[in-house]
Amino acid sequence: MRVHKDTSALATRICWVIICTIAPLIIGVMRTYNTAELQALDRNHHIHPFTDHQQMWAKGARVITGAENIYIHDSDGNRYLDGMSGLWCVNIGYGRSELAEIAKLQMEQLPYYNSFFQTAQLPAIELAEELSAITPAHLNRVFFGCSGSDGNDTVIRLVRHFWACEGHPDRQIIISRKNAYHGSTMASASLGGMAGMHAQGGMPIPGIAHIEQPYFYREGGELSPEEFGLQRARLLEQKILELGPERVAAFIGEPIQGAGGVIVPPDTYWPEINRICRTYDILLCSDEVICGFGRTGTWFGMESLNMNTDVMTMAKGLTSGYQPLGAVMISNRMAQALDRKGGEFMHGYTYSGHPVACAVALKNIEIMRKERIIENARENTMAYFQSGIRSLADHPLVGEVRTHGFLAALELVKNKDTREQFDENGTAGLTCREVSFNNGLVMRAVGDSMVLCPPLIITRDQIDRMHDLIMTSLDQTRSVLTK
Ligand SMILES: *Cc1c(COP(=O)(O)O)cnc(C)c1O
Question: What would the mean pLDDT of 385-402 be, rounded to a whole number?
């Protein structure tokens, strides 16, 4: 008996030694962390974009670990319906292995080469041609970058260079709008009209002027939407005359303001802007970073909103977010002037036309074409999504519903008649965002506007599911706010 006991004790001891030496090795190789460990590491080392870190640390970052179709997963195993397509970009949805495969192939064949100094490579050439094909006929020349922000920096450089080539070097000023979002570099954030961003770091830079936005619900007063649209467009004319048309290079706008809270302009707005730009020969720049690639039911927002665009910025949906890539397209008129007089364009990024990003963009566009993703959305699901969203106007918390294509905003108010807000700090929006996250739905809060931008591949059943989650979240938000 005694011998037996000793043997088993020895065996146990050996087992423990083995477990204690091997387990850390296995865990070390797998680098499995629990959520709290990840949050601690994140807190110690990671500066997040557009995040109040004190607020985030109070509950810890939400760690996203995987995704498929229209769903994302977090490190605690929760699944969320992603009503925001990531950050307005995953238009064809998550988990498309064709995009992973083409990236791998391209990395094996040519992971990198630049387009500086008279070199080129296949994916960038092919993508430039493809973008010329899918954009309106007069846009046929493209400059590649890595994002929407650097794309809009490029827009400033290009339009000023164009006017210099045309013999008007004094045409320098770009007019933009308050509450516009054009990115976060010094120049693109200056083009944008976000007061909070301008307050940090000495923006806007010189040479940029802002006019008021076409935000009917909050700024329309007693006017009809049509009158208001005209009035806000004519502020551009006033500004041009005030600055002197000979000093103005361009006007830039998002067809529909995204980050500003899905501000859909009245129908009268863009046609009047077209007229004014034509009258004073001001270039019209369409920032298609959100509205491009099917978001509004056409390939580009300028088509469904009738903009006479000279320059367009693309990013986000260009690769469905699978790779960082941006692009600026210019009109034939601009291209010809640059050909004649442009000389060397003193601008470029190491990753301009990155072959892997361009290969992924090409495959993304091919999938959109083959599966008729935009046509299907336009014919089968967009109107369904919109009518569901519009029906939420009856909810006691919803002051206004704005929707166009697969974009929507629900503006939350305390009093529907007076449009009074709960407070100035966006508490209602943040509350609703938190509540809906906990219910398994990602909505974004812009102030008190709840914003939706679902993947274009969302089905009617998934729209129903999303609608139920929104309803539940609105009800719960209301009970929290009116407690
Ligand atoms: C997101 C966005 C940008 C900036 O793009 P990044 O890729 O984040 O630099 C520019 N314009 C619009 C309209 C956007 O929504």
Answer: 98
